[in-house]
Design brief:
This protein has about 100 residues and is of the alpha/beta class. Helix content is about 35%, strand content about 25%.
C-alpha cells in the first residue's frame, strides 16, 4: 500500500507505475534502507520523502521538473526530508565516450 501522499495521477510524464512504487516501498521497508541517492525526481522522490529517511538526495537536471517536484514536496510537507538539487547535464568523457551526466559542482 502506498502512502497517502503518493498520488501517481499528479505526475504524467515519466512517472513510475503504481506497481513499481509499491515494489520500491516494500523493498525500502524490508531492507531497512536509511539513505537514498536518486538521479531524477518525481513520484519516487515524494515516496522517499514520505518515509522520512535519514538522507534522501535527488538530482534533477530539468529546471521545470525540479520546480514541479519542489512544489509537490512543499505541498505535502515533505521538503525538509529531501535534498533536491538542480544539476544540469553536461558533456563528460566516460571510457573515451562523450556522455551527458549531472553537473555536480
Amino acid at each position: 500500500m502506498l502512502p497517502e501522499c503518493v498520488n501517481p495521477s499528479e505526475f504524467t510524464d515519466w512517472a513510475l507505475t503504481s506497481e513499481s512504487l509499491e515494489w520500491i516501498s516494500q523493498f525500502v521497508k524490508a531492507v531497512g534502507i536509511r539513505k537514498v541517492i536518486e538521479c531524477g525526481s518525481g513520484l519516487s522522490t515524494i515516496l522517499f520523502g514520505s518515509f522520512k529517511l535519514e538522507k534522501v538526495l535527488s538530482l534533477e537536471h530539468d529546471s521545470n521538473w525540479y520546480t514541479y517536484t519542489c512544489q509537490r514536496l512543499q505541498e505535502k510537507g515533505l521538503l525538509e526530508y529531501v535534498d533536491l538539487q538542480l544539476c544540469p547535464l553536461q558533456e563528460s568523457i566516460l571510457n573515451g565516450n562523450s556522455v551527458k551526466w549531472y553537473e555536480i559542482d
